[in-house]
């Protein structure tokens, strides 16, 4: 077993790092870099075809490991990144990667964490995007992080910084562009956490039934008794490529019962913290006017009980949770509200709070000198801002 060294490795140190996330996955990637990297690969890797390693070209073969290893060889693919750094694509999972990391440790490579790996190997904005990309759980959020790994924000910041020095770019232009990037930051600065969608409404209108219909299984108990749900219940799901944590809550009404009152308090608190509130009612029951939020969707559930001569406002989504009617439309509406601020493909985006904070400051300034300093801080952070901005 190897311990990861949290100290900053010396520049001459040969280092190894598992780049892929933990857990069970089909393929893992282990990176090796440093002056001994080539010798280590030559020692442990038996290529199927003996040809010179060229950066970017893949080589299939066997990882033979330490000479006295009782473990069988493992099929791997090696990609040289340059003369002194390599990626080993091996089987995923803990055991396979640990075995390779153990071999590398025996050969003298220091095991480091992914954030230490990216640090210093790429511009800070690209390194930050790479770290975020590793935490994205859907293709849609990963695509935004990937655009930044490919240099969208880096390109904008560099062009603006250089442009302000030589004056082809005005402070006014930079301010407008920063404001444009900032518009999507509400989504992009938190790509690795799910959107919080909270259902609220009076008791017995079908909130739990709607949650179950949306997630596709019986997450919440439903019953024809007002006050069935007592606490805030969460279910994680993905809708149209968006990671969403959907929360069921206790029906809101005046109550003297202490447990129910606590549940109602929690329901109101969950609505305040939500990215989107779904206000549910049923025919004949008025909406909760005191639950207000910047992003809301109004739902009329139990449409099957609506009197035939009644009509419902066009903006209200009609559903029958028990049959699934209207659920697709509700999910489409949820996605469309949450993605209003999505950046267009390839656009620069602020993918963490440090970046969002600096871009907001740029968007609020018309002064070229101030903007230049902020852009410089964006491109080359002088301190560990992420921890400063963490909640
Ligand atoms: N007719 C009809 N009944 C429904 C519909 N949706 C839910 N119900 C029924 O309404 C009753 C209450 O549903 P719940 O989902 O438990 O309601 P709730 O809003 O979560 O209730 P509380 O947890 O008490 O606040 C259950 O018997 C459901 O089967 C619907 O669209 N039509
Ligand atoms: Mg309920």
Automatic annotation (TrEMBL):
Residues annotated as domain G: 196-293
Annotated keywords: Hydrolase
Keyword Repressor tagged: no
Pfam families linked to this entry: MMR_HSR1, TrmE_N
InterPro entries: G_TrmE, GTP-bd, GTP-bd_TrmE_N, MnmE_dom2, P-loop_NTPase, Small_GTP-bd, TrmE/GcvT-like
EC number: 3.6.-.-
GO CC aspect terms: cytosol
Domain of life: Bacteria
Gene Ontology BP annotations: tRNA methylation; tRNA wobble uridine modification
Presence of keyword Hydrolase: yes
Domain GTP-binding protein TrmE N-terminal, chain residue ranges per copy: 14-108
UniProt GO molecular function: GTP binding; hydrolase activity
Enzyme class: hydrolase
Name the UniProt record assigns to this protein: tRNA modification GTPase MnmE
Species classification: Bacteria, Pseudomonadati, Planctomycetota, Planctomycetia, Pirellulales
Gene this protein is translated from: mnmE_1
């Amino acid at each position: 077993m190897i311990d990861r060294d949290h100290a900053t490795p010396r520049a001459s140190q040969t280092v190894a790092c598992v780049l892929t996330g933990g857990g069970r996955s089909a393929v893992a990637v282990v990176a090796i870099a440093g002056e001994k990297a080539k010798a280590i690969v030559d020692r442990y890797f038996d290529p199927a075809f003996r040809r010179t390693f060229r950066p970017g070209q893949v080589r299939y073969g066997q990882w033979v490991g330490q000479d006295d290893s009782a473990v069988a060889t493992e099929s791997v693919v090696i990609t040289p990144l340059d003369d002194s750094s390599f990626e080993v694509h091996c089987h995923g999972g803990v055991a396979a990667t640990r075995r390779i990391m153990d071999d590398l440790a025996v050969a003298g490579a220091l095991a480091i964490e992914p954030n230490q790996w990216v640090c210093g190997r790429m511009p800070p904005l690209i390194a930050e995007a790479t770290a975020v990309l590793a935490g994205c759980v859907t293709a849609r959020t990963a695509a935004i992080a990937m655009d930044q790994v490919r240099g969208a924000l880096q390109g904008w910041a560099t062009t603006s910084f250089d442009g302000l020095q030589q004056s082809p770019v005005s402070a006014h232009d930079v301010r407008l562009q920063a404001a444009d990037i900032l518009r999507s930051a509400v989504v992009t600065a938190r790509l690795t956490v799910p959107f919080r969608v909270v259902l609220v409404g009076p008791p017995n209108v079908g909130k739990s039934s709607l949650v179950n219909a949306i997630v596709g299984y019986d997450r919440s108990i439903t019953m024809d008794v007002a006050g069935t749900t007592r606490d805030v219940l969460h279910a994680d799901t993905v809708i149209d490529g968006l990671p969403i944590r959907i929360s069921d809550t206790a029906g809101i009404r005046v109550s003297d019962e202490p447990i129910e009152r606590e549940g109602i308090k929690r329901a109101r608190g969950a609505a305040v913290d939500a990215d989107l509130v779904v206000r549910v009612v049923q025919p004949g029951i008025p909406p909760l006017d005191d639950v207000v939020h910047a992003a809301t969707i109004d739902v009329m559930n139990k449409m099957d009980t609506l009197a035939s001569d009644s009509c419902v406002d066009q903006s209200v989504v009609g559903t029958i949770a028990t049959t699934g009617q209207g659920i697709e439309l509700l999910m489409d509406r949820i996605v469309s509200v949450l993605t209003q601020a999505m950046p267009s493909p390839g656009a620069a985006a602020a993918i963490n709070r440090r970046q969002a904070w600096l871009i907001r400051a740029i968007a609020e300034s018309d002064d070229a000198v101030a903007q230049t300093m902020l852009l410089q801080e964006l491109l080359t952070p002088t301190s560990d801002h992420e921890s400063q901005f963490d909640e």
